[in-house]
Design brief:
Elements lengths: L1 H20 L15 H4 L12 H15 L3 H8 L3 H5 L2 H5 L3 H5 L9 H12 L11 H4 L4 H4 L17 H6 L3 H6 L15 H4 L16 H6 L14 H5 L20 H6 L11 H4 L30
This protein binds heme C (10 copies).
One heme C (HEC) binds next to helix 11, helix 12, helix 13 and helix 14.
Length: 308
């Protein structure tokens, strides 16, 4: 009898300790992958954490006000979780005992080194595919897009006031398309670059949030997913065959005027080459879609020619 209750106590202790070791969901996991600082920069050899923000501020008071307006300033300064966050400035700048005595620039990090610093706490989640992302490969780093010493944007500590400006600073060709006649309402702030792209990386091409073009489009244009009784093969395969999601000067983000577009694949067939059918010069320039209204697929029993 005694032995049995002993087992029960041991088992329940094990169970409780298991529960405690499961990190609470949604919380950033501080301290998980703390860096080997000396490996990052040999200047950290022999240095220890000062763990005293005030001592840093004796010489760096100028940066403090703006820093305290940021998510990190508040989280680390006011309500730190774990010892790395409690190190505050040193969570990102490394152990600085030697620096505080003999300050210089020798511990300054490169863009790439800063990414390793940030990833101590921001691994996983949205950044699951960072290692293989085109941005990392192209030597773009966390601090190319985020300014952490100062709050410059409404959210996410972006280096510019908003995403369009941030991304445009490097992707000028895409930004230019965002001013064309037909475009997604990115300028208006209703759709963001990050509605379609994960700038931290994603599986598949183009860093698309849903892994491929069509799944990404369906996430907002659900009705285009179908299922359809009568499918139109190109719509099932790739929306980009006919649309440029960044913007065009044709209606409906079409890559060329509608009739020209259709004729690029449908060169033959009863009426295709007859003027009456393919005029682009109709008031709306609709051409083929005047009659073939269901270009994305039809659910009408007699919609086999996509006319209803
Ligand atoms: C005795 C004064 C002093 C103290 C104390 C001090 N620093 Fe510095 N710090 C400096 C000087 C001087 C520079 C070089 C500035 C320059 O040349 O532009 C510097 C540069 C820096 C830089 C930019 C270059 C780099 O190495 O990345 C950072 C970040 C920094 N200090 C962080 C800290 C932190 C964190 C603490 C507290 C642990 C701290 N400092 C304590 C004087 C000090
Ligand atoms: C979340 C990471 C992070 C924390 C926390 C942080 N810094 Fe920084 N700090 C950076 C980065 C990244 C830079 C590089 C410049 C930039 O991108 O804004 C920087 C730059 C600096 C510089 C150089 C500024 C310049 O204009 O050259 C100083 C000095 C500095 N930090 C001091 C501090 C002090 C003091 C604290 C604490 C009160 C602190 N930092 C907390 C990440 C951080
Ligand atoms: C010691 C852990 C730690 C480090 C190192 C760290 N962060 Fe954070 N970061 C956090 C925590 C915790 C939050 C969440 C704060 C909150 O929820 O208010 C956060 C929030 C953020 C946010 C969202 C801010 C917002 O206003 O929505 C961004 C962006 C960010 N971090 C980028 C960075 C970058 C870039 C670096 C490296 C220069 C970095 N972080 C380094 C712990 C860290
Ligand atoms: C090419 C630009 C770019 C790079 C590089 C980048 N970010 Fe971001 N990051 C963004 C944008 C844009 C957002 C806002 C996304 C949104 O609002 O949906 C964001 C959001 C965040 C957030 C807050 C939302 C979230 O996902 O939790 C964190 C934290 C963050 N980034 C950390 C990082 C870290 C760490 C790195 C480096 C490993 C990094 N970022 C690299 C552009 C970038
Ligand atoms: C500091 C410059 C810089 C910033 C800021 C930046 N990018 Fe990039 N981006 C690059 C580079 C360099 C590449 C590598 C491929 C290339 O040269 O186009 C790239 C690649 C990409 C790709 C993949 C291109 C492909 O060929 O598949 C996408 C998508 C992308 N960026 C989106 C964004 C978005 C969205 C933002 C804003 C949140 C952003 N970028 C901000 C520099 C930047
Ligand atoms: C409505 C969805 C959507 C929005 C919004 C969007 N993109 Fe794209 N973007 C795509 C798709 C789809 C591709 C093609 C990806 C592929 O080839 O697999 C692409 C490709 C790219 C590429 C690589 C090829 C190219 O055209 O240069 C870059 C860079 C890029 N986008 C940047 C951006 C930037 C910057 C923004 C915001 C200003 C943005 N995108 C907004 C859907 C979008
Ligand atoms: C984040 C949600 C979102 C995603 C993802 C998205 N769209 Fe859109 N799309 C919109 C919104 C919002 C509009 C504007 C609707 C309006 O003005 O009534 C729009 C409009 C359009 C239009 C009509 C434009 C016009 O001038 O009438 C086309 C075509 C289009 N999207 C194609 C696509 C394609 C192709 C993709 C995938 C690459 C895609 N969309 C992904 C939200 C999205
Ligand atoms: C074969 C060419 C073609 C393909 C492929 C295609 N579309 Fe379209 N799309 C069109 C044409 C043509 C229009 C204009 C219709 C009109 O004027 O009535 C259009 C219009 C749209 C519109 C705006 C009007 C509406 O019907 O809501 C959206 C949104 C749209 N397409 C999304 C998509 C999505 C998402 C995909 C991929 C699943 C896709 N398209 C694939 C040709 C195509
Ligand atoms: C990228 C090539 C491509 C483009 C562009 C394209 N289609 Fe198609 N279309 C196809 C294919 C492939 C089929 C299936 C053909 C089949 O089953 O014989 C098809 C089928 C059709 C059918 C049904 C034909 C039948 O015999 O059942 C109609 C109608 C049609 N398309 C109209 C259009 C219209 C209108 C446009 C312009 C908005 C267009 N297509 C653009 C490739 C394309
Ligand atoms: C005035 C209305 C109208 C216009 C405009 C029109 N079509 Fe049609 N199309 C039809 C009808 C109705 C059918 C079905 C004919 C049938 O069942 O015999 C059809 C059939 C088709 C077919 C199936 C093959 C065939 O010949 O039966 C294709 C492909 C097609 N159209 C493509 C196009 C293209 C491409 C354009 C633009 C250049 C276009 N259509 C313009 C009404 C139109």
């Amino acid at each position: 009898m005694k032995r049995k209750s002993g087992y029960i106590i041991v088992l329940s202790l094990l169970f409780i300790s298991m529960l405690l070791s499961i990190p609470s969901r949604g919380q950033e996991k501080s301290d998980k992958g703390e860096l080997d600082w000396a490996k990052l920069n040999a200047g950290f050899k022999g240095a220890t954490f000062v763990r005293n923000t005030k001592s840093c501020l004796e010489c760096h008071d100028d940066v403090h006000g703006k820093y305290m307006e940021t998510a990190h300033g508040r989280a680390f300064g006011l309500n730190p979780k774990g010892s790395l966050e409690a190190a505050n400035c040193e969570a990102c700048h490394g152990p600085r005992s030697k620096h505080a005595e003999e300050p210089d620039q020798s511990l300054k990090f490169s863009v790439e080194q800063y990414s390793a610093v940030c990833m101590q706490c921001h691994q996983g989640g949205e950044r699951m595919h960072w290692k293989t992302s085109l941005h990392k490969t192209a030597e773009v780093g966390c601090v190319s897009c985020h300014t952490v010493m100062e709050k410059k944007s409404q959210s996410a500590l972006l280096a510019k006031t908003n995403q369009l400006e941030l991304c445009s600073s490097c992707h000028k060709d895409v930004a230019a398309k965002m001013s064309r006649n037909s475009r997604h309402p990115v300028k208006e702030g209703k759709v963001d670059c990050s509605s379609c792209h994960n700038p931290h990386g994603a599986p598949g091409s183009g860093m698309l949030v849903k892994g491929n073009v069509n799944e990404t489009c369906y996430s907002c244009h659900q009705e285009k997913r179908g299922p359809f009784l009568w499918e139109h093969a190109p719509a099932r395969e790739n929306c980009m065959t006919c649309h440029d999601p960044h913007g065009t000067n044709n209606k409906s983000l079409l890559v060329t005027q509608s009739a020209t577009l259709c004729i690029s694949c449908h060169q033959y067939g009863g009426h295709v080459n007859e003027y009456r059918y393919n005029r682009v010069s109709t008031p709306n320039g609709n051409g083929c879609v005047n009659c073939h209204i269901s270009v994305h697929g039809s659910n009408h029993p007699s919609g086999t020619k996509l006319t209803r």
